[in-house]
Design brief:
Elements lengths: L18 H18 L4 H24 L11
Length: about 80
């Protein structure tokens, strides 16, 4: 049985993160990760670059045929 006097604490799923605040939260989380593991900065940089490239490809495919669902396999 759960003790009603204990504090449940803050869980990550109850913190609202969206819009500009979500971007600040994401950048802060990345900065904390890089500060904790400075040897892995290249992994973060490569992941960010790869994400930007994929976003550009998806945007170009969608702009070429906006009525169809976007799929990388139909390039």
């Amino acid at each position: 049985m759960k003790n009603s006097d204990s504090h449940p604490g803050i869980t990550m799923h109850k913190i609202p993160v969206s819009g500009a605040i979500g971007l600040v939260f994401t950048i802060g989380s990345i900065a904390i990760f890089i500060a904790g593991f400075p040897a892995f900065w290249y992994v973060i940089a490569f992941s960010a670059l790869l994400g930007i490239v994929i976003a550009i490809i998806l945007r170009l495919v969608h702009n070429r045929n906006p009525k169809q669902p976007t799929s990388l396999f139909r390039l």
